[in-house]
Amino acid sequence: xxxxxxxxxxxxxxxxxxxxxxxxxxxxxxxxxxxxxxxxxxxxxxxxxxxxxxxxxxxxxxxxxxxxxxxxxxxxxxxxxxxxxxxxxxxxxxxxxxxxxxxxxxxxxxxxxxxxxxxxxxxxxxxxxxxxxxxxxxxxxxxxxxxxxxxxxxxxxxxxxxxxxxxxxxxxxxxxxxxxxxxxxxxxxxxxxxxxxxxxxxxxxxxxxxxxxxxxxxxxxxxxxxxxxxxxxxxxxxxxxxxxxxxxxxxxxxxxxxxxxxxxxxxxxxxxxxxxxxx
Length: 279
Hints:
Layout: E1 3-6, E2 9-12, H1 23-27, E3 30-38, E4 41-42, H2 45-58, H3 69-82, E5 88-97, E6 110-119, E7 131-141, H4 155-166, E8 171-176, E9 181-184, E10 188-193, E11 196-200, H5 210-221, E12 226-230, H6 234-239, E13 242-247, E14 251-258, E15 261-262, H7 266-278
Parallel strand pairs: 7-8, 7-14, 11-12
Antiparallel strand pairs: 1-2, 1-6, 3-4, 3-5, 5-6, 8-9, 10-11, 10-13, 13-14, 14-15
């Protein structure tokens, strides 16, 4: 039976450690990160923890003094060993405010959980078939203090996921409240036009993606022109030469089709190879 790590101790997955008063359950008062582990190496763990701690500070949570890369490397490696995840793994780190209060907390200390899910790949895999996507329009995402972090308050993405499944799509684009391109359900989005790369500005409301920022850095390191402050619309998506999405678990996923629009993937594939080499 799989195990998880709760506040540094290990429990079997059928062992409950929460009560109904848990604030993540009641109010979505929680943040999380997903990290790709290859063997015992957690890719970009420092960057994930830095974003997690920034989010905790914004939400008024007390960041423990030992909440650092050394602690999590040690706990994650033990968890991987206990769960026999010897190749790749998806690591989920969640933090939530401890019980107390209604909407207004009475305790700003936190608890954390680390989970692992085994994967067969130790590098990112390129999706040769490509994704088919469309735009989800029922609910928009607002730009605010919390929009750049990954929150457990994820009703928007749940609703988008149900719509994606109904429409038999691989993913869907989320718009912000200005009607501009924000992100997809679980990824940042990039497009290529005339050899220049574009991705929506953080002020568009998208998550400040760890993989997004790495991709921007890889492009600039090769003097490739990239605009990471772009304001993108549906028109830009239609006019793009290539389209791809990024996150920390999959790396890069090429998009083949948006409605009746088909995309090439030459530069996307080259960038994907460079990404795997960098890690």
